[in-house]
Amino acid sequence: MDIYRKRLLWKVLLLIFAVVIGLGSLFYTNDLVDKLKEEERKKAEQWAEATRRLVISDDFEFLFSIIEDNTTVPVILIDEEESILSQRNLPASIATDTLAMVRELKRMAKRNAPISIELPNGVVNHLYYRESTLLRQLRVYPYIQLGVILLFIGVAYVAFSASRMAEQNQVWVGLSRETAHQLGTPTSSLSAWSEIISSRYPGTDIAEELPADVERLSRVAERFSLIGSKPKLQYENLPLLAESTASYLRKRIASTIDLRVEDETTGCTAIPFNPVLLGWVIENLVKNSADAMKGSGVITIRLTEHHSEAVIDVEDTGRGIPRKDFKTIFKPGYTTRERGWGLGLSLSKRIVEQYHRGKIFVLRSEPGHGSCMRILLNKKD
What we know:
alpha+beta, Heat Shock Protein 90, 4-stranded antiparallel β-sheet
């Protein structure tokens, strides 16, 4: 359990670090953009002043050089009657189209206050301007940069997650096959001994109980064998599986725990599933519910239907699950028991979602008021 909390903490810290870097980059770029914007306004004011002095000064060459030096800031000069007198640094598509230039003038008026040019004869012209293309690109650049970085991180995360998942699948398959193989030999030997004991000592307790235990070992070996391969799904009777699993478990949980099966389906008698594996999932959920109780309570296996899905709810009156652990409980190694391995729910999730293409999740739970685990299975293959 601690390993998942530590991993979550590292993810949060890395996210905070990335946000700090991103915000720092944005603040720095915006500050730089503001400074350049101020410089461009000064350049526009200088251009306006040169235009005003051009009327009264004899130094035409110097003033024309100032006007010509503006090669970046788009400007439009109008008179008091809002007639366009001149423009500079506008795209050719706008500069040659009067209507387009009028629309550009309105956009400039919305973005920046015009610079007034008072001429000696009392006429007042107005100079409108907007940010240069370079400044606008610089304003957008950090967002594009962050977007590319986030895209790269996202692709890398998906690739590494897929690689890690593939490795985990290989480990699951390898361990399952090896476990099934290791159980197979002694189980066969025990089966032979069971037959010998039954024939020599008929009617004794050992003759009656040993075959059941051997059958149990054979069932475990079969489960691991199916986990290590791709099991075939066949149309089976779901209510019958639920009832047989409950009958098997009633003898193996506390007698003070009431295990019930409620079949509320209407014709949902046959759906595609593997009875050995799905029965294992229900068994895991019921055993977890029994462990969550203090020796007594009610566990209900409820079968219902929802559109194209069959629904299996395993509800108990145990101690409940904290909301923050709703997803963590399905991760390998998570357990609240002192000697638990934390593999039951992880295996259950693998069986339901990978082999049956269904879903398993915590439907509802509240500490001290029980839990309800839900399995969704497709009615059709």
